[in-house]
Amino acid sequence: MLAAPALLFFFIQALAHSAFAGSAGARTHALGIHGDIKYGPDFEHFAYADPDAPVGGELRLAVIGTFDSTNPFILKGVAARGVANLIYNRLCTKSFDEPLTEYGELAEWIECPADRSSVTFKIRDEARWHDGEPITAADVVFTFETLVARGTPFYRSFYADVEQVEVLDEKRVKFSFSGAENRELPLIIGQLRILPEHFWRHRAFEQTTLEPPLGSGAYQIESIDPGRSITYRRVKDNWDEKLPVRRGLYNFEAIRYDYYRDETVAIEALKAGEYDFRAGAGPVEWATSYDIEAVESGRLVLEEIPHQLIRGMSGFVFNTRRSKFGDRRVRHALGHAFDFEWTNVTLFHKAFTRTRSYFENSELASGGLPEGLELSILESYREQLPPELFTATSHPPSTDGSGSMRDNLRRAHRMLAEAGWVIEDGHLTNAVSGEVMVIEFLLSRSLHERIIGPMQQHLRRLGIQSRIRTVDTAQYWNRLRAFDYDIIVGSWNQYQSPGNEQRNYWTSQAAQSPGSRNYAGITDPVVDDLVEQLIAAPDRQTQLATARALDRTLLWGHYVIPHWHNRTYRLAYWNKFGRPRTIPVNGLAFMRTWWVDPALATDLKR
């Protein structure tokens, strides 16, 4: 339940708010979170897409790990890369150059009342599955009910406020909502990837499979080498090619994902020309791995492109379901054992900036002391929040980068003692329960081992024994879904308009739902309330203030030892691509907007 002052405030704001795309119940080609829509009903293509881009060529990409399924919607198995994004269409598609606006894809039009208590979609008459069957409203209802009942727990929390979904006629489907106003929910429903009822009716949806599923999107699966590769082929003359939301996008004739056992092998494979494009190179890789003739000659391109992306939190995540991490003072103390400044200089070539917010690099991030509307929101919970939240700025422990951790470890010792942990026979021990502090870092890649190694030495000086457990991809995901770990390297994507996904990240319900992204196991009524207020925010000003309040509350919970981020796309690719002049603010959109340049591809083969 919302605290009374906050409830009254949001009730008044909801009554006063009337901005949305079109008048009450009007049919529209698009929905915006707070009414702003960049592209009118007669737009021809997105500004970041080139409608004259050539179509053709093969794109080869690398993935680390393995796969054993082509069903990305269930808990079981590890789904092959690309299945969800390439073969299925959504009701609506999100533009990459607006905070949150969606345009009809499968939907010809959208109808939404002013209070957003429901949303109706009319499926395009020309929309077809790859087998030629028409896409209907019944397919939409089947998809929704199947994902909620048999898909990952994420869908149950994401669509928790959907009260009813009904077929109005062959092409129209209506979703009705319950509870408080949820301005994002019509857009969330619009993001639904639609599944064919006639394909899945007699198949076991909950089971892993390597059978190519039926879709309606730009690509379909051409071939599968189980655990090793998957290839997609562009569907010729697909029904959606002429849509403005599709023009100039998905220009590769074929897309192939090859799987590699680790990053080192994958880097060498790129340099050998085994695949075409690599993004997100680490600083050591960037600084030391590409001193080769192909780079010098310009055949292999290294490029850094500045971006304005919001950066979500990433870091070493404490599993607070473990009793040893239940006290935030313990979590704060352990954060002092990580020396980011030394790591950045010694291991990262000064490539990164420390992350200090769950909404880093955006106006949603908290900073300074709370004030204005944010302070008003937090005042409702003053008795439930740490007093220092109102008087100090949260920031991760820092050092001078010299490698000396004496001051940090002294502070950590004091905090641990205050929390009831003392040294007995050289081991940090809980004075009440007698539990000895032992920590396991669970990893799926060896990449972070060299970062954790120095931290282990500092933990040892605190009387803490620790170990690194690096497991294969399948075992890692099984343990992650079951919350069977002490500390993991975790991250959360964020968006310029945060909403319903926050339930899956932070709420008490998600903490008890296997497969959710509440990796830390946060069960805080204040966080639960702030998430609901953020979802219900009636305007951008309220959304910003509530996001900052949530951010500040999470930071003072010390659920994560924050990692780092950079503000450029770091790309390595073979010189065979063309791309639009405009790069959207919300992502590189490489798979969507780039293409194989025939002339460059020919030159590269010589």
* Coarse morphology: globular
Could you tell me the CATH topology label of the largest domain.
Dipeptide-binding Protein, domain 3
CATH class of the largest domain: Alpha Beta
Q: Please, how many helices? A: 21
* Arithmetic mean of pLDDT: 92
* Cα-to-Cα separation, first versus last residue: 67 Å
Poorly predicted tracts of residues: 1-24
- Helix-and-strand structural type: alpha+beta
**Fraction of helical residues:** 25-40%
The number of strands is 28
Provide an overview of this structure:
- The protein is of the alpha+beta class and 606 residues long.
- It folds into 3 domains: 4-37 and 85-200, 3-Layer(aba) Sandwich (D-Maltodextrin-Binding Protein, domain 2); 219-309 and 567-605, D-Maltodextrin-Binding Protein, domain 2; 311-565, Dipeptide-binding Protein, Domain 3 (Dipeptide-binding Protein, domain 3), CATH 3.10.105.10.
- It has 21 helices and 28 strands.
- A 5-stranded antiparallel beta sheet has the order 1-6-7-9-8. The protein has a 5-stranded mixed beta sheet with strand order 22-21-23-16-24.
- Strand 6 (107-111) and strand 7 form a beta hairpin.
- Residues 1-24 have low confidence and may be disordered.
Topology of this protein?
Blueprint: H1 4-16, E1 27-28, E2 30-32, E3 58-64, H2 83-87, E4 92-94, E5 101-104, E6 107-111, E7 118-123, H3 137-150, H4 153-158, E8 162-167, E9 172-177, H5 185-190, H6 197-200, E10 219-225, E11 229-234, E12 254-260, H7 263-271, E13 277-279, H8 283-288, H9 293-296, E14 300-306, E15 311-312, E16 314-318, H10 328-335, H11 340-346, E17 353-354, E18 359-360, H12 372-379, H13 406-418, E19 421-424, E20 427-430, E21 438-443, H14 449-461, E22 465-470, H15 473-481, E23 487-491, H16 501-506, H17 508-511, H18 525-536, H19 540-557, E24 560-562, E25 564-565, E26 568-574, E27 577-578, H20 590-593, E28 595-596, H21 598-605
Parallel strand pairs: 3-12, 21-22, 21-23
Antiparallel strand pairs: 1-6, 2-5, 4-5, 6-7, 7-9, 8-9, 10-11, 11-12, 13-26, 14-26, 15-18, 16-23, 16-24, 17-25, 19-20, 27-28
Helix pairs in contact: 10-13, 12-19, 18-19
